[in-house]
Amino acid sequence: MPDTTDSAPPPQGAIDRLAGLSIAVAACALLGLVLVQGWQVIARYVLNDSPSWTEPVTVLLLSTAMSLGAAAGVHARRHFSFTLLADAMAPSTRRWLQVLQSLVVVGIGAMLAWWGGVLFFDGLHIPTAGVAMPESIDYLPVALGGALMALFALAQLRPGNEPAAAAPAVAEGG
Prior knowledge:
Layout: H1 14-46, H2 54-75, H3 84-88, H4 91-122, H5 139-155
Helix pairs in contact: 1-2, 2-5, 4-5
């Protein structure tokens, strides 16, 4: 009889794939940031001809990496949270606190999505100095990251999607 305990995990869901895409885009943004800043250093100190486009592009790449990386952190439950109190509670109370935590993250993500979108659309007509982008382009990743945070936190509210319980302390004995 085949051993079913080591079977392959089920295919990732759409939310998991979206989180993976967020991580991939954030990683590409970080790589792009390193390349742009590397070019800035070479152009400024070696070629003595500093390009004007590197600063606004760097800010956009940094905003993208931070916003999408934070959203992926929400999906992986690696965001800033206070779990010590929840871990000490009974399972039913712990689940209630986890729901509350997810709802707070939904609220924060929705706020980031809304106001990031407002700021993005408000400045579309203002050109950025040094590069052909709107001045408000830096708010687009904030809006997208906030929407993803809210989506990922909402997905955590589904039954059966609870985080793994904290491992109990093991007493050392002799």
